[in-house]
Amino acid sequence: MKKTCVILLAGLCLIGWRGAFAQSPAPRQAASVTVPDNSGEDIKLFRKDVRSLRKQIIAANLDLSDSEAEKFWPSSTSTRRSW
Question: How many independent structural domains does the chain possess?
Answer without folding.
Answer: 1
